Structures are given as C-alpha cells and as structure tokens.
Amino acid sequence: MSTYMDEYKKKLITAEQAAQLVQSGDIVDYGAFATKPVDFDVALGQRAGEDLKNVSMRFIGSVLPIPEVLLKDPEQKTFQCFSWYFTALDRKAGDLGLVAHLPFNYHEATMLAYSNEYMDRMPDVWVCQATPMDNSGCFNFGLGNSHLRGTALSTKRAVVVEVNENMPLCLGGSDEYLHISEIDYVIEGSNTPIFTLPQMPEATPEEKKIAELIVSEIPNGACLQLGIGSLPNTIGNLIADSDLHDLGVQSEMFCDAFTKLYKAGKITNAKKARDINKSAFSFCLGTQETYDFIDGNPRCASYTVDYTNNPVNVALNDNMIAINNIMEVDLLSQVCSETFGLRQISGTGGQLDFVTGAFHSKGGKAFLAFASTYKDKEGKMYSRIKPLLTPGSVVTVPRTVVHYLVTEYGLVNMKATSVWGRAEALINIAHPDFRDELLNAAKEMKLWSKTNRIPF
C-alpha cells in the first residue's frame, strides 16, 4: 500500500490543475450517469470564453448538478456537448440546442471503446468520479461500470479520477476499476452527495393494470431486466407480494425494484446460466436505499455493458423477461421509444439489446409497455397507437424484432403475425375512444379488409 500511496501522491493535483489539461480541439469524456465529475466540471466551466475552443464534451445520461460546461457557455464558444443517452437534463439542454444526441445500441459501447478502428473518436481527456483507492491500488467505478475502463485505457493524453468518498463500492464482475498505474492524475474531490433519484410517483391505474398483465406472464426462476420509472417499481411491488421465487437479474440498470425484491426474498439468481447467485448489472440509478444495498454487496456484480446487454449473453438465461417502456407504436408495429417527432427524449439504450436477447432465450419474453393514451398541456387526449409514427420519430425497435406489446387493455404477441393480424391486435389494445379511427386508418393503409378473418 505504501508504494501505491507514493504513486498516488505524485499524481495528486487540484481540479483547477486538471482542467488546465484540456486543450482546444480536445474530446473530453465525463464518466457515466452518477459518476460524472463534479469538481473538475466546475473548474473546466470556468475556462469558458478563454482562448479554449472547439472542445467536445461527451456525457452518458447527465444528472444533477447541471454541468458547468453547459451553464457557463450558453453560446458554445468553447464547449460543444453530446450525450449518448438523454435524461431530463439532457432533454432540456437539447431543446436549447446545447446538447446533441449520439445514437447507439448500448452493448456496442464496450466494443467501440476497445476497438482500434474508432481510436480517432476516443477522448483526449477522460474524467470520472470513483471510490477512494483501496489497498490494492484500485479505484472502483461505483455506480457506473458501463464501458468506462475501455474508454479510459483508450484515452490519448490524460486519465483523471475524481475521488468521492460517498461513491458506493460495486464489486465485479469485470472492468469495474482502474489501477493507480493506469491513471495519470488524481483529484481528491469535495465529496459532494452522489445523485439519487427522487421517490417515484404513485403508479397510475393504467400502470397498475399493465403490471398485473406482465407479472402474470413471469414464471418461477425467471431472469429479469427492468428499466427506470414507476412501472418497474409497480412490477416489483406485485412480485414481492406474489408466490414467485428464485428470480434472477441480468439488467443494464440495477433499479430500486430489485432492492425490494431482494429484501422480499424473491431474488436468488439460483437458476441463471452464469453468475449464479449474483445479479449482473452495468450501472445503477436509484434512491440512497438502493445505493446502500449494493455498496460492497457480494450478491451483486458490476460488469461492462457488453457483458450485460449483448443479446447473445442475454439469451443464455432461460426464461429471460425484459420489460421496457415505449412512447408510441404504429399500425405497422414499428416502435418508437426515444423521440417525440424530432425531439430527443431518451435514447435506444439497451432496449433493442434486451428485446432481441429475451426472444432468443428459451422461454424468454420481451415486453414493451405503454399507457394507451397521453394528454397535452391543455388536457387533450391522444392515442399512443397511431396509424404511422409521428413524423420525425425514429424507429427504436423494428417490427421484425417486436415481441410483446402491452397496454392497460391487453397484451399481444406480435411474432409470426401478419400485417393484418398486427393491425388488428394493436387496435384491440388501443383506448376504445380511438379504435374506430384506427380501424378506418388500417383500411386506408390496406391493412384491413372484409376478408380479414385469418387466425394470424
């Protein structure tokens, strides 16, 4: 430890000194989700308007505090910002033209980080919050494994760790750390509180019904992937009160619902194909209760996102159950989960990864869930099932990949179903107020006819 500590002291610099490492034309990466740097960001933001120009900032799911490189440079004279996955913060910045989206399938992130083909797009400066150095000279990434190690090792000039004593220790798994020998500089941060999600709002009646439909399809010994929001928490509550047992977890995100299921004795990971007795995840966003639960917990394993999300790996687990939210679907069964027209709302993330992997799992099911309607600011109601996607909306899950679609009005399996059968199934799970309108649209689109009596 003394040798490591000597090296640590030699590499110790202030946040202000670290910010001076950034040069015009650089690419700077900011960790992932709750591991984005805080003190370094404040210091770098102070350089906005200097001779520094054309610095590309890359985020993954920005969380509070708002990055200073955004606040201090609204005219983008110094910083141009990009995000692989939009959060509410990224969304607002995107509306102002301050952040652009980087589309990708999440499992590809690790592959890109380790590929020589994309070295020109690797960062010049990489900065991330991490735990304090341990006795082995390692800094743990905590809440954000993702593809951080690969990106750090591919960094061209400066790898910087910002130590935060509040960062939970997330055991591996794989690639959950950097060693002091792999780091150029260390910042001892001000130990700001780690970002936590607020308590999710009470589930709507529609979400409760959707959850009931999905939980009825989950067998004992299933392996779960859940996303963010009140629906996964509602599903977690239902499972906790059910007779289900021996559930497993392979999920890009470790969410609050898993903590509840662990404490209810529902998760054992005993039936998984690998990582038996452990929940595999790549990042965590949740409440402090969840962070406390995974901190140093040997029953949870932090992995690269390629390991958790690669459809081939997902499919290895029997009875893989993937549950994700979507924004809208059209009568052709094309799914949009990330934009509203041209407005970026989130990102593809791992949704396509898990829909593909769960279908190829023996007994697996991929559920894409959504309330059948939404309302605008004036209270006018619209259907999320549309004749065609809103102009400008992107296809997140192609119709050939879609498995189950679920609303409060029912659950339908789209596999081995004709275009007629898909349109009919979607109309049947639409809000009743919109079914006639959708039926007429289906007729105009040649997706419906008087002879539409086939079984599929």
Write the layout of secondary structure elements.
Blueprint: H1 2-11, E1 12-13, H2 15-19, E2 27-30, H3 39-45, E3 55-59, H4 68-71, E4 79-83, H5 88-95, E5 99-101, H6 108-114, E6 125-130, E7 138-140, H7 148-153, E8 158-163, E9 177-179, E10 185-188, H8 205-215, E11 223-226, H9 230-240, E12 248-254, H10 256-263, E13 279-284, H11 288-294, E14 300-302, H12 305-309, H13 311-315, E15 320-325, E16 328-330, E17 335-336, E18 339-340, E19 343-344, H14 351-360, E20 365-369, E21 373-375, E22 381-383, E23 385-386, E24 404-407, E25 410-413, H15 419-428, H16 435-444
Parallel strand pairs: 1-10, 2-3, 2-6, 3-4, 4-5, 6-8, 8-10, 11-12, 11-15, 12-13, 13-14, 15-20, 16-23, 20-24
Antiparallel strand pairs: 7-9, 16-17, 18-19, 21-22, 24-25
Supply the CATH class of the largest domain: Alpha Beta
The first-to-last residue Cα distance is 66 Å
Global Rg: 23 Å
SS summary, helix count: 16
Describe the structure in your own words.
The chain has 456 residues and is an alpha/beta fold. It has 2 domains: 2-188, Glutaconate Coenzyme A-transferase (3-Layer(aba) Sandwich), CATH 3.40.1080.10; 205-444, Glutaconate Coenzyme A-transferase (3-Layer(aba) Sandwich), CATH 3.40.1080.20. 27% of the residues lie in helices and 21% in strands. Strands 1-10-8-6-2-3-4-5 form an 8-stranded parallel β-sheet. Helix 8 packs across helix 9, helix 9 packs parallel to helix 10 and helix 15 runs antiparallel to helix 16 (435-444).
